[in-house]
Specification:
Blueprint lengths: L5 E4 L8 H8 L12 H4 L4 H10 L2 H5 L7 H11 L1 E6 L5 H15 L4 E3 L12 E4 L2 H9 L3 E4 L11 H14 L8
Parallel strand pairs: 1-2, 1-4, 2-3, 4-5
Helix pairs in contact: 5-8
Bound molecules: magnesium ion.
Magnesium ion binds next to loops.
């Protein structure tokens, strides 16, 4: 039997609405990040931005809203291979606590990896689904396949449902292909 395909699904910006959490903390419902520039848009240094989030403890992370497609996407990933949530914790230990609580509640799974260095999991045939272009590039540099998850801040013209369709196709055909609409 063929080896199971490995699929790694990022959490923030793919399954969990991190930006929504930031909007609530700073009371900025108008905030629409155009790049990876949330702190800059709020007029904060990165230290101020992450310091505020870290002081909120696990609750900031555990109370993030799941995107409407989160359960479908996670289900499609599991059907298409051996799937893991691959998420980078912040510098605060509270982040890991909040994230694991979130994953258990929203997706009812322990198939996750908390990894400051996602690319360590990259290898040929392993798929990463991530909203961060730098993570995708680093993954591909190590021989993996990356699908950039569409969000306003990365300029992808695709929709969340295109990613789910891509996973359904993968489960049917078994071949890793570039993500297209
Ligand atoms: Mg992300």
């Amino acid at each position: 039997m063929d080896e199971q395909r490995l699929i790694f699904v990022d959490c923030d910006g793919v399954l969990a609405d991190f930006v929504g959490g930031v909007r609530r903390v700073w009371h900025r419902s108008d905030l629409v990040p155009e790049q990876y520039d949330l702190a800059e848009q709020l007029g904060l240094t990165l230290e101020e931005f992450w310091g505020t989030i870290d002081r909120l403890g696990p609750a900031f992370w555990s109370q993030l809203e799941a995107y409407p497609w989160a359960v479908s996407l996670w289900g499609a990933a599991q059907n298409a291979g051996e799937a893991y949530i691959l998420t980078q914790p912040s510098l605060s230990p509270a982040c890991a606590a909040g994230k694991t609580e979130w994953i258990a509640r929203e997706l009812g799974t322990r198939k996750y990896l908390l990894a400051p260095h996602k690319a360590a999991c990259a290898r040929p045939g392993a798929l990463l689904i991530d909203d961060n272009e730098a993570n995708c590039r680093e993954w591909e540099a190590r021989g993996g396949t990356a699908w950039l998850f569409p969000q306003p801040w990365n300029g992808s013209a695709l929709q969340a449902w295109d990613v789910i369709n891509g996973l359904v196709k993968l489960s049917l055909k078994g071949e890793l292909e570039p993500l297209v609409a």
